[in-house]
Amino acid sequence: MERVMDHHTWLHKLLTYGVGIVLVCVCFAVSAMSKEVNPAIGTLIVIFLLYYALLSRRILETLIFGAFMGLALIYGKGGFSGFVDGLVERTYSNMELDDFVWMIVNCDLLNVFVRLLGRAGSTASFSKIVQKHAKTGKSLNFWTWLMQFPLFFDDYMHITVNGGIMTPIYDEKKVPREDCAFIIQTLGEPIRVLFPISSWTAFMAGIFVVDGFASTYAEGFRAFLKTIPFSFYAWVAMIGSLLFALGKLPRFRGMKTPHPELYKPLDEIENDTETERSGRRGNLFDFFMPILVMILLSYFFDWDLVPAMLVVTPLTFVYYLLRGIIDTDDVEECLIEGCKEFTYLNLLILFSYVLGDCISAIGYTDYLVGLAQQFADPRLLPLALFVIFSCSEAAMSLNWNLLLIAFPVILPMAIQIGANPYLCAAAMISAGAFGNNFCYICDFSTLTASVTGLPTAYHASNCVPYSLMFGAVTAVLYLVAGFIF
Question: What is the pTM of this model?
Answer without folding.
Answer: 0.70
